[in-house]
Automatic annotation (TrEMBL):
<protein>
    <recommendedName>
        <fullName>Lipoprotein</fullName>
    </recommendedName>
</protein>
<keyword id="KW-0732">Signal</keyword>
<feature type="signal peptide">
    <location>
        <begin position="1"/>
        <end position="22"/>
    </location>
</feature>
Length: 151
């Protein structure tokens, strides 16, 4: 099932400032960006958190984030500032009874995915392809997907 983000252009500009992508030295990033439409399947919500020079490695499956200890373990390989953004996004995310929060690093490169697809058993988040990928950038952008799914 395809999940689209609210404003792809705004997300791309916020998560990879022109100076950082075009060879400048700004290592800024974006706060979490929510999707723009509700899901009619088992995905309750999803959100992408991206930052230039955020570190981390792409994962094949999502990690359950049932408590703060799990969030701390999940963010351990990320740059401190991206870990803080992910932690803040997790704290804002509402998870009701019968739902589970997962996190996954879905991209590390010059581009932020415009959307993600969430698969089940095991929960895995796949980034949608970028329409016009950048050929090079000053520093890679790390994108973390946070998804809430029905148990």
């Amino acid at each position: 099932m395809r999940r689209l983000l609210g404003s792809t252009a705004a997300l791309l500009l916020a998560s990879c400032p022109l100076a950082a992508c075009a060879g400048g030295s700004d290592a800024g990033g974006s706060a979490a960006s929510p999707t723009s439409q509700p899901d009619s399947g088992y995905v309750v919500s999803d959100e992408l958190v991206s930052q230039t020079a955020g570190d981390g490695e792409i994962a094949q499956v999502a990690t359950p984030l049932p408590d703060q200890a799990a969030v701390d373990d999940f963010t351990r390989g990320l740059a401190d500032s991206l870990a803080a953004k992910v932690d803040e996004a997790v704290r804002r995310t509402q998870v009701a009874s019968g739902q589970q929060l997962y996190g996954q690093v879905v991209a590390v490169g010059c581009d932020v995915p415009p959307a993600v697809t969430v698969e089940r058993d095991p929960v895995a988040v796949q980034p949608e392809p970028v329409t016009s990928p950048k050929q090079e950038c000053f520093a890679p952008v790390t994108t973390v997907a946070l998804v809430v799914v029905l148990d």
